[in-house]
């Protein structure tokens, strides 16, 4: 049984179109004994966004001013909008208030840009995790997703095991980082791209054809980021459809090209991303990746941990 938590909602990106899902999630979390704060983030709207830029920016910066911090700060949904806010975020104040606190900052998709900016500017570790509407508000919630979410937030050492088709075998250690591939690429050349040496990069995305995925990876390679990593872990690339025109050009061929042309270690098939079943990854934590005969294991530590 999960302990009761204070969960503060935050909506720095798109307006939550699926209001029913968000309200369902709030009801479920409340029924489970959690205290859900700032529910107005769900209904707030300006154009396609969850409020105007100032409202969404204030919601982030106010985390540094809260008299009492919640256990979890959870994004309502992704979409688009965080990138408009990055240059106005009060990073020093957030660092002073949040560093060394057992607080879980949770979300994925567009939220990745904020997470990587906080990692680059403040060294803050956050969780690439399920979100309110799409995951906790699903008509049939995933027990796999919820189990991995709470395990990641409450375990000092967090271990993931999965089957992979990668031909690579070995052990690699480094700082775990990444998230949504499009958002990672959007930070190239900015101060908000973490400078990770010998890291383990985990990537996922949605609605991106394999050629677009390869184009983004080419950009990361050509600016030197991929070459500085120990390994790349690929999660789900939802709705990445191919046609007869592609003639076999699929995601597996993209991963294989990275191995053959650039000599990169690419470990595939982690259940991570925009699917119903997704693991939670602490971005900025330390990790050890072990791969042997199609079995992959990721052991993660050094992230904020909530009391059990």
From TrEMBL:
All copies of domain LD-carboxypeptidase C-terminal, residue ranges: 173-289
Enzyme class: hydrolase
Domain LD-carboxypeptidase N-terminal: residue ranges: 7-128
SUPFAM superfamilies reported for this sequence: Class I glutamine amidotransferase-like, LD-carboxypeptidase A C-terminal domain-like
Keywords: Carboxypeptidase, Hydrolase, Protease, Serine protease
Superkingdom of this protein's organism: Bacteria
Cited Gene3D superfamilies: Class I glutamine amidotransferase-like, LD-carboxypeptidase A C-terminal domain-like
Molecular functions per Gene Ontology: muramoyltetrapeptide carboxypeptidase activity
Catalytic activity, EC: 3.4.17.13
Pfam families the record matches: Peptidase_S66, Peptidase_S66C
PANTHER family for this protein: MURAMOYLTETRAPEPTIDE CARBOXYPEPTIDASE, MUREIN TETRAPEPTIDE CARBOXYPEPTIDASE
Family, similarity comment: Belongs to the peptidase S66 family.
Protein name: Muramoyltetrapeptide carboxypeptidase
Organism of provenance: Candidatus Pantoea multigeneris
Phylogenetic classification of the source organism: Bacteria, Pseudomonadati, Pseudomonadota, Gammaproteobacteria, Enterobacterales
């Amino acid at each position: 049984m999960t302990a009761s938590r204070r969960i503060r909602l935050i909506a720095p990106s798109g307006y939550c179109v699926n209001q029913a899902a968000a309200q369902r999630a709030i009801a479920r979390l409340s029924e489970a004994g959690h205290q859900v704060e700032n529910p107005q983030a769900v209904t707030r709207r300006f154009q396609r966004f969850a409020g105007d830029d100032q409202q969404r920016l204030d919601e982030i910066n106010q985390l540094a001013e809260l008299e009492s911090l919640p256990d979890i700060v959870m994004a309502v949904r992704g979409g688009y909008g965080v990138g408009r806010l990055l240059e106005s975020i009060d990073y020093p104040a957030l660092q002073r208030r949040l560093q060394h606190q057992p607080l879980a900052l949770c979300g994925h998709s567009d939220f990745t840009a904020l997470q990587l900016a906080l990692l680059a500017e403040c060294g803050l570790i956050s969780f690439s995790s399920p979100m309110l509407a799409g995951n906790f508000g699903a008509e049939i919630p995933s027990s796999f997703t919820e189990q991995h979410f709470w395990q990641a937030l409450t375990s000092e050492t967090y271990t993931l095991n999965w089957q992979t088709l990668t031909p690579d075998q070995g052990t690699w250690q480094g700082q775990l980082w990444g998230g949504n591939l499009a958002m990672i690429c959007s930070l190239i050349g900015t101060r908000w791209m973490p400078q990770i040496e010998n890291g383990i990069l985990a990537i996922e995305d949605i609605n991106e054809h394999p050629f677009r995925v390869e184009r983004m990876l080419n950009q990361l390679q050509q600016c030197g980021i991929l070459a500085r990593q120990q390994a790349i872990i690929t999660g789900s690339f939802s709705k990445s459809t191919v046609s007869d025109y592609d003639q076999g050009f699929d995601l597996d061929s993209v991963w294989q090209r990275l191995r053959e042309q650039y000599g990169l270690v690419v470990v595939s098939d982690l259940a991570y991303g925009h699917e119903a079943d997704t693991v939670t990854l602490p971005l900025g934590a330390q990790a050890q990746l072990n791969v042997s005969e199609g079995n992959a294991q990721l052991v993660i530590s050094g992230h904020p941990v909530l009391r059990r």
